[in-house]
Design a protein that fits this description.
Elements (H helix, E strand, L loop, with lengths): L12 E5 L3 H4 L1 H12 L3 E5 L12 E3 L6 H14 L5 H7 E2 L1 H8 L4 H8 L3 H13 L3 E5 L1 H4 L4 H15 L9 E3 L6 H6 L6 E2 L3 E2 L3 H11 L11 H7 L6 E5 L3 H4 L3 H8 L4 E6 L11 E4 L8 E4 L4 E5 L12 H11 L9 H11 L8 H9 L5 E2 L23 E2 L18 E6 L15 H6 L4 E4 L1 H6 L7 E6 L2 E9 L7 E5 L12 E4 L6 E2 L3 E7 L17 E3 L7 E3 L4 H9 L10
Parallel strand pairs: 1-2, 1-5, 2-3, 4-15, 5-6, 9-10, 10-11, 16-20, 17-19
Antiparallel strand pairs: 7-8, 12-13, 13-14, 16-23, 17-20, 18-19, 18-23, 21-22, 24-25
Length: about 575
């Protein structure tokens, strides 16, 4: 994130795209609700109707995979109507002319044909974004999990640069991190192309510094990204060390991956709980959970915070860093970190962004009532950075990148007439290794489901609650159907959390050419009814987490779906946007 979470409440315009914020990032969603309540305008661009659309000024319900057309058309309006911040562009950017020329071809009228969003709504959104002082963009996996995800991000960056919405409060470009401390993991170098602090592996100066610091010989060649790794499992890759990830749930085209896993010579997993992937393990290292270890977490806004042990790990479980150090030393490394402070001190020593942060300083500032420090923080006297690029763009000049539309790798056809997208729900978290063990969350959402529009359901003879088979070219799964106008006609949606009906048996492993991120959000699919609704007992809790409530004078909203009387009672009184759990 270029900006901070606390700045959201002071924003005047929020452009939320590819983010089911209230379910995937509920704390950030609360700040957005506060902003709207205070008078901010929100526009949500998403193929589904989500809770956030109930408080948005406009819902741009675009066809999945057409984000480039939408964003380039917005840029077209900003250019043709003279809404660019030319002074900012001249002083802070390069390659502007390339983008200015390329977006002229993406007119709102042509965009309407591709995206399904009216030209008027595209123009209104572009004007509002360009002319509002405190305007921020917020996005997540709905933007990045495409075979053209990097193109989507470039388009968003182009909008930010051409309007000058950078280097000031309550604006910027803000990807919302999807897992606790995934920001911290990336900061520490858990990527195939970066060493700690986003220093490139193939930079000779950086390479030499870390060889000296660690006293080892390092490869200067960037590693494989995750998608590349998964495609060579059991072939080029003969062994895996899997730490904190249930890849049999989370990776696309998982049937193919399972075949590769069966051909591996050796698998080690490091987990607090058994999951679908530990079934393949030759060795399992029991890892401590968050409340059983010391260290730091870094959140979406780059805020480093101290974490303290609440209880001791049970049995033989250890903190991750202790297990990794013991394994490294068994291989001859000779590491001698005594605690997590030692590890962070090394990070701060070799990566300028974190040079002013230490466990000791975090402890001191906590006693002074402060909550963590945001990097960049180049020295111990620096207060941390609330928002980036305040004194000029960090790379020197902001780089405009022209983007041409590329369709998703797999679209609907005669055999598979629907487009499948996947995502998360409020009650479960990623592979649900932890959340499905909790009785209350399990009761809220016990089973997998697929959302289908009433029009598409009628064509296929499917009723709400029917058992259906969802198929793609990669496989099929069975689950309950939720007939709902949350999804566009021609589209279906599934959560990824359920091992017994794994959505990622279905998804396409085609990857973005730069990041390798798989195309979880678009693939061709079909639905066939396999059981009658009458087989569901009266009053039984259907497995879908939400039932869409509609009625004269009522906002479209989401409510837990149990017996029919729940829906009937909900219709009699509007749901409060501040209390979606009502």
């Amino acid at each position: 994130m270029t900006n901070s979470i606390g700045e959201i409440r002071d924003a005047e315009f929020l452009f939320v795209i590819g983010s089911n914020t209230s379910e995937a990032h509920p704390i950030i969603a609360m700040e957005m609700k506060r902003a709207v309540k205070a008078g901010a305008t929100m526009v949500v661009a998403d193929p589904r109707s989500i809770w956030m659309t109930s408080i948005s000024e406009k819902h741009l319900q675009l066809r999945p995979g057409t984000d480039v057309w939408l964003l380039n058309a917005m840029a077209n309006v900003i250019v043709t109507e003279g809404l660019v911040d030319q002074e900012f562009i001249d002083e802070n950017t390069e390659d502007w002319e390339k983008v200015r020329e390329s977006v002229l071809r993406y007119t709102p009228e042509e965009a309407e044909k591709v995206t399904g969003i009216s030209a008027d709504d595209i123009r209104w959104t572009a004007r509002k974004y360009a002319t509002t002082e405190k305007a921020g963009i917020y996005y997540t996996l709905g933007i990045t999990e495409h075979s053209h995800g990097t193109d989507n991000v470039y388009c968003l960056a182009n909008l930010v640069l051409m309007t000058g919405h950078l280097g000031k409060p309550s604006s910027g470009m803000n990807p919302l991190r999807g897992q606790n401390n995934v920001q911290g993991a990336n900061d520490a170098g858990a990527t195939p192309v970066f060493l700690p602090g986003y220093q490139r592996v193939d930079d000779p100066e950086v390479h030499a510094r870390y060889e000296k610091s660690w006293g080892v010989e390092l490869s200067p060649v960037p590693g494989l990204n995750l998608n590349e790794m998964m495609k060579t499992v059991g072939d080029d890759i003969k062994g895996l060390f899997i730490m904190g990830e249930d890849i049999i749930i989370s990776e696309p085209n998982v049937t193919k991956l399972e075949k590769g896993m069966n051909n591996l010579d050796f698998v080690v997993t490091q987990e607090p709980f058994h999951n679908e992937t530990t079934r393949y393990a030759d060795v399992i290292f029991p890892a401590a959970v968050f409340a059983e270890k010391e260290g730091t977490f870094t959140n979406s806004e780059r805020r480093v915070q101290r974490v303290r042990k609440g209880v001791e790990p049970p049995g033989e479980a250890r903190a991750d860093w202790e297990i990794v150090q013991a394994l490294a030393n068994a291989c001859g490394a000779g590491w001698n970190y005594t605690n997590t402070a030692d590890v962070y001190d090394e990070l701060a020593r070799d990566a300028d962004k974190f040079a002013g942060i230490s466990h000791e300083r975090l402890e001191t500032e906590m006693h002074e009532g402060k909550t963590g420090i945001q990097w960049p923080c180049p020295d111990p006297e620096h207060p941390g950075t609330e928002y980036l690029h305040e004194n000029g763009i960090l790379r020197g000049k902001g780089l405009f990148v022209p983007v041409e539309y590329r369709p998703s790798m797999e679209l609907e056809d005669e055999d598979y007439g629907l487009l499948l997208s996947t995502g998360r729900t409020l009650y479960h978290y990623n592979a649900a290794t932890q959340t499905r063990r909790e009785q209350g969350l399990h009761m809220k959402q016990s089973d997998a489901f697929v959302e289908i529009h009433p029009r598409d359901a009628r064509k296929r003879g499917v009723s709400h609650g029917d058992m259906v088979r969802v198929s793609t070219r990669r496989g099929d799964v069975e689950c309950r159907a939720i007939v709902s106008r949350q999804v566009r006609p021609g589209c279906i949606w599934m959560p990824l959390h359920f091992g017994e009906a794994r959505a990622n048996v279905l998804t396409n492993d085609a990857g973005d050419p730069i990041t390798g991120t798989a195309e979880y959000k678009v693939c061709a699919a079909e639905i066939v009814k396999v059981a009658d609704r009458s087989e569901t007992k009266s009053g039984e809790l259907f497995p879908g987490s939400y039932y869409q409530i509609e009625g004269p004078g009522y906002n479209v909203a989401e409510a837990p779906y149990g017996a029919l009387k729940v829906a009937e009672e909900a219709l009699r009184q509007p749901l409060s946007p501040d209390k979606p759990e009502t």
